[in-house]
């Protein structure tokens, strides 16, 4: 009993920096997710249609991918903490410009700037999470940081439409800017985080030579394309396929976010069992969830239950994927996290555009079936990653 108590008391605490980074993730995620619910009101104010407005979302995604792929080497040169603060400043300026945009082209340009800043902020956040994690609590710490996606899912999707109805869509961006200033205040001590090499920043694409990274990035691409491809059309399936009101999509997003957040309390088991052995298993579990989704696609209550499990499985898989990538080469961690973010947002584009024709011709269940195949590919790539790293070492 005494030894057990002593071990518990000596267990390292999650650093306060993890909670500040969680808020930063939520800030970036809120911008990614908030536009969908308020799109009709924003389009109306610009006297344009929703499809034209959504070019702003595409601009954000392309900007994020380009920045992460081309500029993430700056993280290793100047330090992740410093890069994060400057990226957040640029991001908040872009959000303020979005809220004040007088016309659609200005709004699209502001979202492109937000994407360029997010492409540096996200890999900086993941790098700092890896640096701040106490030994033996890496997954636990990263789980707290990833909880920011739950905050953005719940607040960004559920509250943005309400705020837009009560105070106008521009207030949504105003509130996010205020929250962003609070997030910046919490990152003050992270300014010097990371190892600043001072050397000229190499292209993050050079990190593709790191042993073991190729299969993990392939797994990331399949994982993210399946998620964004299914998530992009589940709302339309509820409305057109099941005849439900548009608000039904908000409850479904809330269930996903709650499931994603619930897994945070299980992250400590990942550190005990080991990320390398768990990643293929977790990808297989995500595939099983998509398989269940094909069977539940005709029932709204069943879909809500499956989507809650979807959030849980995706959190676990994302946590372990980032841990595996961050451990490949600590000296190039910023570049590696940049590649991860770049692949993620390229997969967003590929998933939303590639799944569309299949959805139009074969329906929502076919999307979930394609996602099953992609997750099997992700599990296979993850299983090969340790052997690839060993072989190249």
TrEMBL record:
Q: Which Pfam family is an annotated match for this chain, by its short name?
A: MFS_1
User: What stretches pass through the bilayer?
Assistant: 16-38, 50-74, 86-104, 110-132, 144-164, 170-192, 213-234, 246-266, 278-296, 302-323, 335-356, 362-385
**Major facilitator superfamily (MFS) profile domain: which residues?**
17-389
Per its UniProt record, what SUPFAM superfamilies does this chain match? MFS general substrate transporter
What is the recorded membrane topology of this protein?
Answer: Multi-pass membrane protein
Q: Which UniProt keywords apply?
A: Cell membrane, Membrane, Transmembrane, Transmembrane helix
Gene3D superfamilies hit by this protein: MFS general substrate transporter like domains
Instruction: Spell out the coiled coil positions from the record.
Output: none
Primary residence: membrane
Its subcellular locations are: Cell membrane
PANTHER family, per this entry?
Answer: PURINE EFFLUX PUMP PBUE (PTHR43124:SF10)
Q: What is this protein called?
A: MFS transporter
Lineage runs: Bacteria, Pseudomonadati, Pseudomonadota, Alphaproteobacteria, Hyphomicrobiales
